[in-house]
Request: fold
Amino acid sequence: MLLASATTTGIVKVIAYHAKNSTDYFIRDQAIMCLGNITSDCDTCRKYVMETSIFETVLDLLQTPINLTAEQRDHYAWTLQNIIRPSPTAPDLNVLLTQVERQKMLKIAIGLITFPPPDASIIQGVELLNDWIMIDEAKSTGLSIVENETLMNHLLQIFDGNDDTSSSKVIRCIGNLVFNDDDVIQKIIDYGFVSSMDARRLTAGVELESDIIWCLSNILGSLRASCVHAIYDRKELLQYLFHNCYSYEIDIRRESIFCVMNTCTFFQGEEQKELYQRFFGKIIIKTLYGFTNEHIASMAETVQGILTHCIDEMKKNNPIYKKMICENGFEGAVQRRYELTQKTLQTFDVETPHGRKLIQLLSVCEEALLSIRDYKSMFFNVEHQH
Reply:
């Protein structure tokens, strides 16, 4: 902790003054870098920095990145990233941008991302854009981003390239944009991102492939039929997602399961029934019986997601679950998962993040068992009355 005991608000303000007012470029640039380092040191240090004018200073300096040297672009963009990057431990310190600041951020992102390749500023711009999207809890920036054709076409061009790392950074941006609303999702589809993901998955390494499937699962969470059908109507892609629910690559398996689950949540009636019979009913049972490893946090979240879906469907009195319970062993599978989770919890400190996730999963298992009991009672009473 570089400045844990020595930093005071006064020192930080002096550095911020030089960052804004120094006529010596070397001193100004060193001051900006210094504040970038302080911001990333600890939450208290971040708070000190956020009380200065450095955010506005760097925003203004990056408005015309083409006028800066490559080193200056790198230093300023890096500092800006540290300032706006979401804080996992102190979300109250996340930057809240005004309308004017959002316009400036968009101009910076466009300026960096549209640099002629190869230039390190391009990927810095993508990273900066993603951090900005991540702190936008009000989801107020998505539409302005996707309505900028220049920016979106450059992002698609980077994604279609041969560098997996760059493609992953782009598709994380797109996947986070999807959380805005269905209008944003439709725009993303219209630019051709689903078609590109379908093609790029064929040559992608494991990490990029996982990111692509994650983005597809977010799109499949849409409530708009045209958005869901943009993926669902691609039969080879759908089969690929079904197949990868059994992948030995954990992240690919997890995201593929969420893709299928989101699809089954969207469709109702006969279409949903067919999906359950063809595939999803089996993956539910296999997953609950122990196909996943709860020592891996992401798979514990996957099981919780599946059970939450099942609980919601039983609350709707979905007739599919009569067969799931009476013929397919759903109740026994949930009981088995409950026991496995109890056993796994014995090896974790319940105060750790993973321990807390397992506590949540155990609670959802209990809720699922109660839902099964209520569902059986309701159906047996109806049949008895008939």
